[in-house]
Amino acid sequence: MTGWQAFAQNFLNPEVAAQYAPMILAGLGVTILLAVLVILAGLTLGLALAVLRAFGLRVVNWGIIFIVDVFRALPPLVIIVLIYFGLPAAGLSMSGFWATWLALTLVLMAFAEEIFWAGISAVPQGQWEAGRALGLHFLPTLTKIVLPQAIRIAVPPLVNRTIAITKGTALGSVVAVSEILGAAQSGMAFSGNPTPLTLGALAYIVLFIPVVIAGRWIETRFAWRR
């Protein structure tokens, strides 16, 4: 058996691929669901913290900065393990799926808050003054004038960060989440053949190549024109 034949037998075995393809497809569905939930929760919480920070309450801002810095500094895997194995010691149990969701949501929230805050800070002071000149108070000025511009500024870096975080769904395999990687590892263990891992890699390509292309289009669409 040549080297290529040995490689094909181990990584491209059609019988093993046919047997475990349904498992990988099920894992793909779990990955998509987890990624969507992380994006929705993470971006919403990040925007809420950035808006709250804009009110300029010093003690509140210190708390936000501390929380954001902590979750930006900790690796997502460490947070997942702490939540999954640590919360039961405090009398709170959480499935691997929801532990992964919570961990990745907190990480995305932290990065999203900083990106949204940078967008708010980048809006010229004259925009605030224009709102006051129109007789608007702080909150209407923030929501109707400043925030739409800040979100447009934040979109390009936010897209990249969101894609990076959603690829972290693979970390859920550490706590027995049957997403793509978890399903591929299970298939590899049952079959004694790494072909399911190849299917998992193909599933990630099928899932994330369109996401990356869409992200590039969004970045171009929302980029400021000089």
Automatic annotation (TrEMBL):
It is a multi-pass membrane protein. This is Amino acid ABC transporter permease. CDD domains: TM_PBP2 (cd06261). It is found in: Cell inner membrane; Cell membrane. The chain crosses the membrane at residues 20-52, 59-85, 91-112, 170-191, 197-218. Belongs to the binding-protein-dependent transport system permease family. HisMQ subfamily. Residues 28-214 form the ABC transmembrane type-1 domain. It comes from Falsiroseomonas tokyonensis. It holds the Pfam family BPD_transp_1. It comes from the Bacteria. Keywords: Amino-acid transport, Cell membrane, Membrane, Transmembrane, Transmembrane helix, Transport. PANTHER family: L-CYSTINE TRANSPORT SYSTEM PERMEASE PROTEIN TCYL, MEMBRANE COMPONENT OF AMINO ACID ABC TRANSPORTER.
